[in-house]
Design a protein that fits this description.
The protein has 6 helices and 2 strands. The two termini are 27 Å apart. Strands 1-2 form a two-stranded antiparallel ribbon. Among the domains are: 61 residues, Multidrug-efflux Transporter Regulator, Chain: A, Domain 2, CATH 1.10.1660.10; 35 residues. Helices cover 51% and strands 4% of the residues.
């Protein structure tokens, strides 16, 4: 299957496919002229990459989920650790949501007089609020390689 077909069937842009190949996540098997050709199982590999990214794994972590032949080989302890991390994030976000919902309908005349809002402020001051990106680094699902 050539790169255009893989891009069409997977919805992943050709530039991203080239980037994934550069990073060792997928491998082309040959070239037909200037076009890369891939085995049909590349679609399964791309699905695993998408699932890993949706779960918050980095591309480096996702790279460890494949054997050298491109077959899935996922460390179960790594999955459990990520699930624990997601559970902790969900718990923090749920607490944040509950606090904001309360503050939005709190009968206190001002937010400064609302004990729940004050707890949120203290949490923010202590740096214990969840961020949109808990790693502090923006993860990019799609990154185009630089061309010379």
């Amino acid at each position: 299957m050539d790169i255009a077909e893989v891009a069409r069937r997977s919805g992943v842009p050709a530039s991203t496919l080239r980037y994934y190949e550069e990073k060792g996540l997928i491998a082309s098997v040959e070239r037909q002229g200037l076009r890369r050709r891939f085995q049909p199982n590349v679609l399964d590999q791309l699905a695993l990459i998408a699932l890993g990214q949706a779960a918050g794994f980095s591309l480096v972590e996702i790279g460890t989920m494949f054997t050298s032949e491109g077959e899935p080989s996922i460390d179960r302890a790594m999955l459990a650790a990520k699930a624990d991390e997601l559970d902790a994030t969900i718990k923090r976000l749920k607490a944040m949501s509950n606090g904001l919902r309360h503050a939005s309908v709190c009968p206190a005349p001002r937010h400064a007089e609302c004990p729940t809002f004050q707890r949120l402020l203290r949490s923010a001051a202590q740096g214990s609020l969840p961020s949109a990106d808990p790693t502090g680094l923006k993860r990019r699902a799609v990154r185009k390689p630089r061309r010379a």
